[in-house]
Write a structure and sequence with these properties.
Layout (H helix, E strand, L loop, with lengths): L1 H16 L17 H6 L2 H5 L3 H13 L1 E5 L10 E2 L6 E2 L3 H5 L16 E6 L5 E6 L2 H18 L1
Antiparallel strand pairs: 1-5, 2-3, 4-5
Length: 151
Amino acid sequence: MKLLYTLVLLAFVSVASAQITPAVGTSVTRQTPSAKVVQAFTTEQLTWKTYDDVNELNFRADHLVAVEPATKVAQADFQLKRISDGKSVVLPAADLMNFNPLLYTIPQDDLRCNNLYVASREGGVYLLVVLSKQQYYQQFNQFKRTQNAKH
């Protein structure tokens, strides 16, 4: 019984430590970083993020880049580079289909989407469609309005 209590307590502490306290004036009490955000930042870095920071990072991780297999015969024309060390990487197809833009240096144009063709480790080519800054912030602001309307 004591072991079960300890496991439950440890699970509660690990879940609670992953949540971020909101900035003053926000209506929601906690914001939990998504798995992609947790993958990109240390626990210490996340503790310094505000509710709004985490909310934007969660949205960025899921909406900045759309990935699909290249349907036409295309050559890979872009090399992914990790933010952490600047090294070029070739990802497996599974990682490209669940792409985390918070881990890589991705060019983002002010007004136009970027279409980047990236090779997978298995030899396939994938299209990464990166939203322009204008489109991204329009979508994020719409998301925030929708989220605020729910509270």
